[in-house]
User: Which sequence fits this backbone?
């Protein structure tokens, strides 16, 4: 038991979890009813449910980002994909003769997710086939993507009135928001996909040592391509959630900076931007920290626009605690029971 | 060994390569053919820029007027300064995502201080200094704590944006005389050409950056780090100091750009400059600087800014084209440049 | 020859890396005005000794005296300040800058605070001229050959008035003319009193240029000799050595003669296979059940040959037949599809996936072959991992340990397990025993013999000739990137191979 505890306090996920707990405690001290969840019309309500609901789109984007980062890549275009996906779905529904029909909505969802997948394949093509650095390759779509979304919506904020579509972002099922179910489902699916198959291990091996992986016969190109395709697909689903939540497609602001939040969530969750080992549960914690932080600011009565300041403080704190220099110092202060990984010197 | 003299006409880095002995016509022809490949991307940008001017001139009357061209520089002077700072960072192989937020912070701080009656002689240096200090923070995070530039500058971006919100959420108009004078003065140059104080400041920054990059040991160390940080260390260069300074420079440029933007809009607003860092990065890349570091010129970045500005101008002239085409065209240009750079790189390896 | 006061004196230097004693009690003396060759095979400790001198590595014990004063340098910059300049094999200059800048960077003449480019280029030109290097200082470094870049690096070293110039394998990618140019420069520097430490694996060059040599083997000092007094054959045998301890541990592996092979087909046949700049076209047959050794010094093309056989590098000439069918080995993946596995000499860069566990590292090859979708079941993985951890004696026997926490020898065994798990028909091992302790070495040797006895074809590369001789049924000898001979069976004598390596069979 004590060993498990030690392992936990030494893991990279420790500080993010501490931050999350601290935020929850702070909120509870401020509002004693913070942690309570009440039932109304068979639906669950409360701050915790809000956190879960608000986390859903970010979690989807961050999951894809985790896989991309594991391969030593990065995807800056997911925010643009969110906007495009919402624009496509809303435009299709708005222009259809029967916006309220489930068939229309399903078709719209299909088109939006399909298009997102195509965009992901495009990113993957630039990175794994053309060989452009990930940060630039995805910068292209990040720059052009919102323009494309505007093109689709004709520069308007396209509003729709379609109850089935509204369900994705605001509906409830079995007491929980539908978006939470979707995000949860995708989380489980990714977890199964990476940890029940060999996808996770092979992605990590490509991220840790590309040349060794090549000699071992790992097909890096397909793996990297898959990661970008998945990232964009998940961003597309997130885009549906966000646009369904407000029942409109705002090409300019939908998913603005979500890529940065997602990257932050991944980094806070202990996955290194240098690639390699990734942690899906770490990403989940990272997402929860960011969303809870935003909510905390609201609850504490601070103007919501000061959130970036809090975010900056948390990010800097977590990054500093995870930085090699500080970790080495902390490790040295604690008892030297565990042999610290020796920095491998290159022998003669 | 073939010696070739380099003499590109309006050389973006003429200082690095001034002519030695005067060559005959033959050498000149030879040098034109054997152009230093570092200039190829910049020349590409220049060709694109001239092509766009030609396109504009052929489609619209009055396009090639002094007014249009003057406005191109004047309206984009803040972006020129941002791109200059970003050029330092990118040449050294880093990236700075915080500049847009720093623009907002220095702008809103200036407006707020003017509102409380502070004099311009204090406010202007102060808001520029804000940028420098944030740059220093980033530099320390990147160098001492080994946090990736991407994350460190992202944190700085949130920090600057948050501080801007703390200063004020609403837009503050500026009535300070100096600022009003700065923003309303137009210095005529001939009949249709003109320049504003902001434009002059931007050109001054470009000139200083050019001298620093090409005529100081610090500037050359920036290139050396971008060419290979490990090599730079083994060559005994002051890598640590240079890396921190680079971010200070980028922050300072962002501070100046914030000041210029304040003059331009005659107000401060904490929501300005959202996505401005992407415009700056795009301008630098389109200007021929390799995002992998080690190669690029400030003058190229200026050309990049002009290309971005010209896209905007053409789309305005076109009238029927919606504004979002700007972003799509910028994206397409970015793609074209990146793919060409990649192809050049592949050919170099062979 | 008079013996002026040494400019560098290293005494009793020891450096230990985790699991490896890289240097043990080594002495080294360098005098002004001499070219001193540092000799030894891969892993002998040459680079470590250089890095100890230039402050890249901290020494565990011993003393370094430079110019009569004890010194320990904090890093390359400090060593440079004390007059010790190093030119590395992979040129450590900035290819994106001009020649003049690379020579002068950090020392540019300035006027009014600004770099005076005219003076800079003039100074650079002067420094280049002192080395008889006639190139345009304003040209880009990357527009020049490696040889010229090498000389530019030397010019840079001389800008700081180096008393000691370290040349770490400067000639490995130069052609004959370029080497001559480099040697002219070295002679002129020597006459000016500069002490030059020269590392090269080309014996001819060493005999041509050096005055004295220090030989290292396995991190220990073999001795210091005047070049003129040490015959070539003796040098090679001193470098290669006969590590008796290893031989004692290795039971005499019965070499099954592969007699019946006249009427059988080789598993792999290379015909005129080659790659420009790496290895000249060669023919090679490898039969099932035999160990083919590749002998030759470092840089002789032995690694390059192995890489072509396994798809790690792409050949630009010739063809490969696997079991009589012509095929192309474009990537390691296609080679693995033909059951050809390759264990690279660069264990850290091309083998170990440090942040993954022992289990994952062993299963990687097998899993990559199956694709990501069909994960090997935990039960099967456990079987495979347990089998190899036991069979190879991997320590700690914990499949969940991170590979980077294992010693070099155990990492090597894990990599072997990775390849063996894919059940290869041909296993190419490039220096599998380098840098690992004696016990692990013997175990790996025994394993290779057993694998061949069980019918696997093995290509075996080692810097230790004894080892190659002992294990191989047939030996292909390489020299200067050419396969120069093939010697078979019991008649192979150590002296014979040494002579081939030393003189190329021409004499």
Assistant:
């Amino acid at each position: 038991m004590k060993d498990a505890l030690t392992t936990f306090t030494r893991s990279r996920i420790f500080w993010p979890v501490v931050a999350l707990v601290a935020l929850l405690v702070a909120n509870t001290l401020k509002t004693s009813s913070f942690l309570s969840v009440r039932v109304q019309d068979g639906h669950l309500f409360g701050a915790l449910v809000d956190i879960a609901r608000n986390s859903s789109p970010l979690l989807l984007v961050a999951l894809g980002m985790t896989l991309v980062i594991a391969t030593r890549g990065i995807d800056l275009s997911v925010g643009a994909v969110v906007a495009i996906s919402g624009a496509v779905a809303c435009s299709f529904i708005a222009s259809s003769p029967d916006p309220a029909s489930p068939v229309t909505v399903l078709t719209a969802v299909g088109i939006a997710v399909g298009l997102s997948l195509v965009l992901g394949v495009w990113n993957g093509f630039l990175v794994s086939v053309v060989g452009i650095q990930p940060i630039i390759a995805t910068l292209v779509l990040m720059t052009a993507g919102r323009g494309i979304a505007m093109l689709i919506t004709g520069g308007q904020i396209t509003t729709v009135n379609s109850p089935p579509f509204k369900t994705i972002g605001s509906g409830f099922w079995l007491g929980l928001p539908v978006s939470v179910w979707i995000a949860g489902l995708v989380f489980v699916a990714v977890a199964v996909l990476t940890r029940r198959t060999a996808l996770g291990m092979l992605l990590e091996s490509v991220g840790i040592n590309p040349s060794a992986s090549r000699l071992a016969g790992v097909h890096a190109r397909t793996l990297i391509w898959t990661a970008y395709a998945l990232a964009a697909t998940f961003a597309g689903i997130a885009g549906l959630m966000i646009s369904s939540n407000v029942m409109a497609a705002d090409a300019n602001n939908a998913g603005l900076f979500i890529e940065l939040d997602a990257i932050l969530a991944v980094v806070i969750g202990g996955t290194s931007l240098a690639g390699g080992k990734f942690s899906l549960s770490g990403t989940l914690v990272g997402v929860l920290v960011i969303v809870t932080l935003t909510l905390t600011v609201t609850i504490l009565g601070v103007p919501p626009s000061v959130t970036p300041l809090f975010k900056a403080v948390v990010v800097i704190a977590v990054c500093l605690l995870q930085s090699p220099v500080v970790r080495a110092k902390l490790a040295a202060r604690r008892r030297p029971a565990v042999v610290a990984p020796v920095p491998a010197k290159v022998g003669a | 060994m073939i010696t070739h003299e380099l003499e590109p006409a309006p050389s973006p880095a003429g200082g690095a390569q001034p002519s030695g002995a005067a060559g005959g016509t033959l050498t000149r022809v030879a040098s034109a053919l054997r152009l230093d490949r570092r200039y190829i991307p910049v020349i590409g940008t220049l060709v694109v820029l001239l092509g766009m001017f030609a396109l504009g001139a052929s489609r619209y009357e009055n396009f090639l007027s002094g007014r249009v061209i003057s406005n191109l520089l004047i309206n984009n002077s803040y972006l020129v300064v941002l791109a200059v700072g970003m050029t330092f960072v990118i040449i050294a192989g880093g990236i700075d995502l915080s500049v847009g937020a720093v623009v907002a912070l220095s702008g809103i701080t200036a407006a707020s201080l003017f509102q409380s009656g502070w004099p311009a002689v204090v406010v202007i240096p102060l808001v520029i200094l804000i940028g420098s200090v944030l740059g220093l923070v980033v530099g320390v995070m990147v160098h001492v704590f080994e946090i990736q530039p991407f994350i460190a500058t992202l944190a700085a971006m949130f920090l600057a944006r948050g501080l801007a919100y703390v200063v004020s959420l609403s837009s503050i108009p500026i009535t300070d005389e100096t600022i009003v004078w700065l923003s309303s003065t137009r210095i005529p140059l001939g009949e249709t050409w003109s320049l504003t104080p902001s434009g002059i400041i931007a050109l001054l920054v470009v000139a200083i950056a050019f001298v620093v990059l090409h005529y100081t040991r610090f500037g050359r160390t920036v290139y050396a780090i971008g060419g290979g940080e490990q090599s730079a260390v083994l060559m005994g260069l002051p890598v640590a100091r240079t890396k921190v300074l680079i971010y200070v420079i980028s922050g300072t440029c962002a501070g100046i750009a914030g000041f210029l933007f304040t003059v331009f809009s005659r107000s401060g607003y904490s929501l300005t400059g959202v996505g401005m860092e992407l415009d700056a990065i795009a301008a630098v890349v389109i200007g021929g600087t390799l995002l992998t570091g080690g190669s690029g010129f400030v003058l190229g970045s200026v050309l990049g800014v002009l290309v971005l500005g010209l896209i905007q101008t053409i789309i305005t002239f076109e009238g029927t084209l919606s504004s979002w085409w700007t972003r799509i065209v910028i994206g397409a240009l970015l793609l074209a440049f990146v793919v060409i750079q990649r192809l050049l790189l592949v050919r170099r390896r062979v | 020859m008079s013996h002026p006061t040494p400019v560098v004196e290293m005494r009793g230097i020891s450096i230990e890396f985790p699991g490896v004693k890289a240097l043990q009690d080594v002495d080294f003396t360098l005098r002004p005005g001499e070219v001193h060759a540092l000799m030894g095979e891969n892993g002998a400790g040459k680079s470590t000794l250089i890095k100890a001198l230039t402050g890249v590595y901290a020494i565990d014990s011993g003393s370094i005296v430079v110019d009569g004063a004890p010194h320990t340098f904090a890093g390359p910059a400090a060593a440079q300040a004390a007059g010790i300049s190093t030119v590395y094999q992979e040129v450590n200059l900035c290819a994106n800058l001009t020649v003049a800048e690379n020579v002068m960077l950090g020392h540019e003449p300035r006027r009014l605070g600004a770099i005076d480019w005219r003076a800079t280029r003039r100074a650079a030109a002067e420094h280049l001229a002192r080395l008889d290097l006639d190139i345009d200082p304003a040209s880009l470094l990357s527009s020049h050959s490696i040889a010229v870049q090498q000389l530019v690096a030397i010019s840079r070293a001389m800008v700081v008035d180096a008393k000691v110039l370290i040349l770490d394998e400067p000639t490995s990618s130069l052609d004959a003319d370029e080497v001559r140019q480099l040697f002219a420069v070295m002679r002129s520097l020597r006459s000016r009193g500069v002490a030059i430490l020269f590392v090269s694996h080309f014996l001819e060059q060493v005999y041509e240029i050096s005055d004295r040599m220090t030989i290292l083997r396995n991190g220990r000092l073999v001795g210091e000799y005047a070049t003129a007094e040490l015959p070539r054959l003796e040098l090679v045998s001193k470098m290669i050595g006969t590590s008796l301890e290893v031989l004692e541990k290795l039971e005499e592996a019965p070499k099954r003669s592969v007699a019946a092979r006249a009427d059988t087909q080789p598993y792999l046949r290379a015909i005129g296979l080659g790659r420009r700049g790496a290895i000249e076209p060669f023919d090679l047959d490898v039969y099932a059940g035999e160990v083919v050794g590749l002998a030759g010094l470092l840089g002789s093309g032995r690694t390059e040959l192995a890489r072509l056989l396994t798809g790690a590098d792409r050949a630009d000439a010739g063809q490969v037949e696997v079991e009589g069918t012509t095929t192309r080995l474009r990537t390691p993946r296609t080679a693995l599809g033909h059951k050809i596995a390759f264990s690279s000499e660069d264990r850290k860069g091309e083998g170990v996936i440090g942040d993954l566990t022992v289990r994952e590292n062993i299963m990687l090859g097998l899993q990559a072959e199956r694709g990501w979708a069909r994960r090997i079941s935990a039960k099967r993985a456990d079987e495979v991992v347990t089998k190899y951890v036991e069979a190879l004696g991997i320590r700690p026997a914990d499949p969940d340990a991170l590979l980077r926490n294992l010693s070099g020898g155990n990492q090597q065994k894990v990599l072997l397990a990775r390849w063996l798990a894919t059940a290869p028909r041909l296993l190419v091992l490039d220096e599998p025993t380098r840098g690992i302790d004696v016990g692990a070495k013997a175990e790996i040797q025994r394993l290779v013999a057993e694998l061949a006895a069980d019918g696997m074809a093995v290509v075996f590369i080692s810097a230790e000739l004894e080892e190659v001789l002992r294990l191989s049924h047939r030996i292909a000898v390489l020299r200067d990137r050419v396969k120069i001979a093939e010697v078979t069976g019991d008649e192979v004598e150590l002296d014979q191979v040494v002579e081939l390596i030393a003189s190329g069979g021409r004499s």
In short: The radius of gyration of chain B is 21 Å. Chain B touches chain A through 48 residues (CB under 8 Å).
